[in-house]
From TrEMBL, chain A:
This is Unannotated protein. The lineage of its organism: unclassified sequences, metagenomes, ecological metagenomes. The keyword Signal applies. Signal peptide: none annotated. One of its GO terms (cellular component) is cell envelope.
Automatic annotation (TrEMBL), chain B:
GO terms for molecular function: transmembrane transporter activity. It is found in: Cell membrane. Keywords: Cell membrane, Membrane, Transmembrane, Transmembrane helix. The chain crosses the membrane at residues 32-51, 63-83, 89-111, 123-143, 149-172, 193-216, 245-265, 286-314, 326-346. InterPro entries: ABC_transp_permease. Its main location: membrane. PANTHER family: ABC TRANSPORTER PERMEASE PROTEIN YPHD-RELATED-RELATED, RIBOSE IMPORT PERMEASE PROTEIN RBSC. GO terms for cellular component: plasma membrane. It is a multi-pass membrane protein. It comes from freshwater metagenome. This is Unannotated protein.
From TrEMBL, chain C:
Pfam families: ABC_tran (PF00005). Residues 12-256 form the ABC transporter domain. Signal peptide: none annotated. It comes from freshwater metagenome. Keywords: ATP-binding, Nucleotide-binding. This is Unannotated protein. CDD domains: ABC_Carb_Monos_I. One of its GO terms (molecular function) is ATP hydrolysis activity.
Amino acid sequence: MINRVTRGRAFAAVAAFGVASMVLAACGGGSTSTESSAAPAASAAPADSAAPAEGGAEVAVSLITKDSTNPFFVAMQEGAKATAGEIGVNLTVGSGKQEGDDQGQIDLIENAIAQGQNGILITPMSVNVNDAIKKARDAGLFVIALDTPTDPPDVVDITFATDNCLAGEAIGQWAAGKLNGEKAVIARLVIFNDRMVSVDYCRDNGFLKGMGIDVKDATVMGDEDATGKYATGAGGDYEIVCLEATGANEEGGRKGMETCLSKNPDINVVYTINEPTAFGAAAALEAAGKAIGKDVIIVSVDGGLAGVEAVKAGQIQATSQQYPLRMAALGVQAIYDIVNSGTKPENTSADGTFFDTGVTLCTDDPMETVTAAPQESAQYCIDNAWG
Amino acid sequence: MSQTPTVAVDLAEEFMEPRTPLQRVQGILHRYPYVSPLVVLVVAMVVFTLINPRFLLPGNLSFLTQQTVVIGTLAIAQTLIILTAGIDLSIGAIMVFGQMVMANLAVSVTASNVLPIAGQNPIIAILLGILAAVFAGAINGFLITRFRLPPFIVTLGTLSVFTALTLILFKARTIQGPEIPEALKFLGKTIKIGDFALMYGVILMVAMFAIFAYILRNTAWGRHIYAVGDDPVAAELSGINVNRVIFSVYVVAGFIMGIASWIYIGRVGSASPNADPLINLDTITAVVIGGVSLFGGRGTLIGTFIGAFIIVVVENGLALAGLDQAYRVLAVGILVILAVAVDQWIRKVKS
Amino acid sequence: MTPTLGSVQPVLQGRGLVKTFGRVVALNGADLELYPGEVLAVVGDNGAGKSSLIKCFSGAHTPDSGEMLVNGEPVVFRSTNEARQKGVETVFQTLAVAPALDISENLFLGREVRSKGILGSVFRKLDTKFMREEAARHLKELGIGTVQSITQTVETLSGGQRQAVAVARAAAFGSQVIILDEPTAALGVRESARVLQLIKDLRDRGMPVILISHNMPQVFEVANRIHVQRLGRRAAVVTPQTHTMNDVVAIMTGALTIDESDQALPPVSTSVS
């Protein structure tokens, strides 16, 4: 006997479950804050701005990151804000709610179009935001991809990035050098294993390529042979134990590492998508009684301050450092220049597909096998780190 | 009393009425709603072991317990709330809020904290973090009882409010492992029993399940939670202060979320404002799979415990079987629907 | 004016009760007396104020004005709990039972008994065993239960059995008056008969009962006196012996008015008919 009251509640509860999942899956547009800095008093008082202000036209730029909590993106936002403040750009900072929140980014892009801004700096979440970016460009906005290239790359006007493939390659080369012929039992902790995101497959396949393993399709993870030989350095047998999705955070890193250890406790090489994931993996390995640096090596990418400090402390053996502060600052400057002088930035990377902001391999145990990036000590990287 | 026996016999007759085997199963499930999840758990563990014998190794079993710890603890809070026919979507947001309060208060002044009162004694930081979660729970309870708003709407709102508050107050900064004092990470330590690593947080979680199972079963407050969720009008007419019971449940749930905050820091070793954004749904999933009725008034903490464990077992087992994350999500989704269907069927138990 | 004959004092009494909801006047100076050992039926058309009257006595409503007395003592009820504390127990039409709880838990809902000693005082443990024994005893006294059924959840009981549980709860706690609101409305013929028997049993045990019902034959079967409510006040009090069902219906609709002297205002046993 369900009376009317409880039945009503029941529907509410069931609805709760359904709606909540939709809301959380689709709801977008994380946190947005507008940094109105120095110059733009003009925009608030259009009557006074019959002619462009003295320093040039009012420039409005949106910075759209994947989330607002990862220190990497926080640093990026800070870099952009600092430059925007200096040169007088009206900067709007926003992000998706978390990895995978495409809709959040799309909303922010549309907001930028609606506000008639001059340009967008974006770390694209996935190919799902491509259409929105095209719309922005059609509306006359200059779009720069930061850190992560779009797929295909020409969706945006230009990409300011560290070469994620190269960053991955460097740690792969390092790992192979460190193993020096020993059999590699590999765990790979990536962001997703059911979706392909460029930063994810570029770093991961780059890592395998660096070890001298045939990655087959460079844009697909998990299509390589599970066992075989790696060629870099002394060369040797390899066995891939797992490819676990972690969401690129500590909890995911820990859980993913635990799953890998359950599959095969003899893992001796751990690739991690970023340093928070590496911290989680390290915790799981320690809990399982592994001596990090001895029984097992952890390699990563990012080069955040905590990350390179962990390299110094021996928690991570090598990480590729990137320069998000530089990236965002250069992006803001580039759009300012386009509006005021029409100068467009040029591609500078090795293959000429993007504007390379550089990568450094941070390790206190340099290997001759590393050719993809310059090697520096952990201390050097700490001095140059973001976050 | 001469006329009474007829009635008594009638009553007895009805209880003795012969039933089909299916009805008998229905009757058992009705009485012990955690039996069906228990069957699912046992079957799943047997199947996963057959597929990959590593599943049953002590090392993997200890991973299973550790992966259950946060969702299990939060599911206690969610169970209390769902028993009152409520729901809490803000459960993860409150846990993250508590966790960020703890971590930010505890780190040294020179670290990446933003609060001027940072650098507290870690114990005080933990207590204040728990207090923050209690306060957040009290806000939910206040809005629900004082303004008679549906819990779904209130907590959908506070989900955003607490998430935003966390980001605003703590400048969206992740506090990373090395910065956090040991006391905050205490519950992440383990005792080794052979290859099995027993995490302190797991012990605390099991203790809390036991304590709250006792409370629900053996105290007036516990029975009133069931009565309120079952039929609030009847409860009120029976002299129970329904609002007070509901408010107290949200406050106590807040306390449990605060404990979960502490456990979470121990488990993960860092404090991130975007930790586990979907854990609120995971807790609801655990509760539902555990045979607790979303309609309120029915279910046990034993069921929830099993439900939380099932989620982790399914994910881990399918991973060891070599299946992608998408299949794990699929499997859990199917389990939820099955669980709700079984609940509906049980409720139709014949009088 | 409410006459009080001789030394017999009403167990429950209302004088000039007024209750309004906005512009709607539910009670317009209603009176009521219930005397020891009787079943008083309250009948009336929809909107006559039956429910409001009963809700005042059960504590669900507080009258705007007027006076209520229990055993001659003025009382004010702000909640059902306060009414209960004064011994006025109401079995609502919705029964106010929690379906998922068992019979014993329902009987003690809202007044659970804790264990003795430290278990009860510190650990707040309920004395489940004691409550079950007590519940079984109460049900047995009323002839409505067997001991092995006491842990059966209420939702597995039939409508009549639920009613019995609700009545048992009302009768269990040293109550002075039991008010039954449409107890047979949702029941079949056989179960209705059982509940009517239960009401008679209660009266035979000396418990005064107020029965609100639409069902005239049932009213005439069990009531000692019949209180007819009309337009928010008492239109008449008659007995099954002096008036027919048709008379009562006529009073309800206003087709018949009865002189006060011709009414059964005092208890039937002492009144001269």
